Amino acid sequence: MKYTREKSGIAEEVVFMAGSTMNRQTAISPFPLFKLVTIIVLSLMLIALIFYTCDIAAISIEQRQLKHLTHDLANKIDTFLLDYFTDSATELAKSQVVIDACTNRTLPENEQLLSVLNASRTVLGVSFVYVMDSNGNVIGSSVDEKGFSLAGHNYAFRPYFTRSMAGAASQFPAIGITTMTKGVYFSAPIYADSSKLPCGALVIKTKPHSTDNFFHKIQGTIETLLLSPDGVVFSASRPDWIFSLATPITDEQAIRLKQSRQFMGQELPVLPFDISKTIIHYDDIRAVTASDSLQITGWRVVTIGHTSFPLVIALTISSLIVILLGLAVSNVVHAHREQTLQERIRLGMIHNTEVEAERRKTQQELEIIFSTILVGIALVRDNRLVQVNQRLCDMLGYSMHEIAKSNVRNFFISKEAFRQFIRNHYQTLPHSVVEQVECYLQKKDGTFIPCMISGKTLQPTDPSRGSVWVIEDLSKRKEIEKALDAAREQAESANVAKSAFLANMSHEIRTPMNGIIGLTKLVRQGVQKEDLQNHLDLILRAAHRLLSIINDILDFSKLEAGRYEVQCSSFDPRETMTEILTPFQVLADVKNIDLVWSVDTAVPGTIYTDQNKMMQIITNLVDNAIKFTNEGEVRIAVSFRKRYPPSSRYLFIEVGDTGIGIPREHYDSIFQAFSQVDSSFSRGTGGSGLGLSITKGLVHMLGGDLWFDSEQGRGSRFYFTLPISEPDEKIEGEFVTNKEREQDDVQQEKAGKQILVCEDEYINTVLICTLLEDAGYQVSVAANGFEAVRKWKKKKFNCIIMDIQMPGMDGFEAARRIRNMETDGGHTPIIAMTANATEADRKACLQAGMDYYLPKPIDGQEVLDLIQQCIKKP
Hints:
There is one protein chain. The protein is of the alpha+beta class. The protein has 22 helices and 29 strands. It has a five-stranded antiparallel beta sheet, sandwiched between helices. A five-stranded antiparallel beta sheet has the order 9-8-12-11-10. The protein has a five-stranded antiparallel beta sheet with strand order 14-13-17-16-15. Helix 19 runs parallel beside helix 20. The longest helix has 61 residues, at 33-93. Residues 1-26, 679-689 and 729-741 have low confidence and may be disordered.
């Protein structure tokens, strides 16, 4: 039944449902004044919050930019000022001229020292470069543009001197006491040849503007400062801020600063702002600050950037809020009017409520799944996106509103890519499912992302209803694959670089070693005094020892790869032990420990094995024993033993000490590469952890074995066996006899023989020419491959000595050209004499057409014998 009442002024209906027991009455709601007041108050609070947030955001953006700028500026100062001049000071401190001056080998202010210091000052572009002895006296100084020198002054009180004498490089920004100009002092300790304590310091003082230049290059409204640990402005983009205090200091700090004379009594006014605060004000300007530390302890770079209140942005957003406020008030009033009507008809709105509630619940669950799934989903109809989830919007950089109704073609990288996708996949949708198709899609910002796409039609019989596409972002997977490829390429490049480095180092060190050994031998031949001969013998031994160490370092990579060469020779084990252990006596005396060695009488006078490898093994073990022994003794014993079969003979060598011993937990790792018993920063001894690993590899290389026993606190004992054999004395004696018999014939054959020496190193040229001319040969010299070929064309030579690395044309190309131009069966012997000392280098020389190969450093007699062999050979 339905009743209608007309006296209320508004058509009012009351619906009664059959069987209902509910009492349905309507009432007009009061005007929502509280709601309006709440909306207005919240809007005003929101506007205030927007003003505050805009200001905070502007400050945060400026600070972020300042931090990047400050960090870059600090890195530039560290790299191009601090690191550069610290490395320069360290390298100059290693100069032999500087060391000689500090150790009184040469006079102070000698011409060679001044030449080095003045040249260094010019190259580095600094104010002064000077040398201080152990008392802080300047014994050598460069002169500035006015001819002024710091020689004779004493700066022992300066921190950079005391730090250098403590064995550390130092940087010290200050005002010079003598010159009254500011600069950064870079110092490095100077060590004598074998001393562990510095004998002086080398100091570089930069020019006054060296630090200011970094700050003047900053453009715009950004100000920069360089602060000392006490807050003194050492450099700044504004000159009037220099030598000011960034923050107030106490009277005690002021007295300490004046006594240090770091800033030479400069008046230190306080800046008109506190630099420690994030936001500062000066000159009616609001600014933010950022700082970053430098390598010099306590010193930092500070930048100041102007920032103003973003009034326009705040007003714009606030205007939108006001508009929304008006709409909200209007909506509340309108809603109240509608509510008075809705309350009168709400009793008729309860039909099928349970079914509707269940439908909404199911729809909500589906929407949650659709919006939170980790892959992009799109409903496509007529090539347009009808519906997408939030994940796809995030992937492509669009909002829901922007992406709705968009054409699918807009998201492909090109029209051709879209056509190809349609031909290959889209047209097959009515008949089959498209699975895992890789392609690139274009984002809103124009960049491309790799994606995996799968698709299926909603209803195969009716394609017009559309299709569902699942899109997965493959960016992270591609990045991981790219990172793995880059890591693999980097590892391969590192392996190539390692091989190149070892080859280059071998060549660069062998070339000067050839000159040292060769010229020392030539000088010794002309020296009659026995003491000078002994000194020259020591130089030769040291040079050969250094060459042996170089070879052993290069052998480490061969040990890792299982490739090595054993070069056996005959030698006296007792002389070898004396040569090995005599230099260690100095180290033992310094540590006040006894160095005792003995060779059993049963050991033969001459043995046959790899002498260099044996010397390296004993050297490594004795060096470790002395290093880890602070009191007591280091004992080396060599004995001779036989084992089955009877012809098998070997040396048994023991190296024992009374040092710290090896903890039992480190027994298993003691022979591992890069292993240290104590790897902490406070350990008493250094080392790379390769010594015992190389030693064990060398022992195994020679067919022996190495083991040890140790007791912590009471010392260690290392034992190793070394298989040996005796050389055939009859064959050696016959060789000497034949050599003496042929000596006169050789001298006659040398007369008139022409030798061409192709070498670009001056010292090596002098060495080989002197050797050949003294032997009676006529020598011609070529500085490169071009000159060697040209001289060979003009003149017939009995033999050519060819270097490999030369400017213009190298030895390989020169040898090939000579071989290609030889006619009528003629053949000039070519001997390769090079610092490239690997087996691959020897094969390369022979493949280029050379007849023989000699690695540097050379043995004079070996060279003469080989030339004689070339001349006699048809």
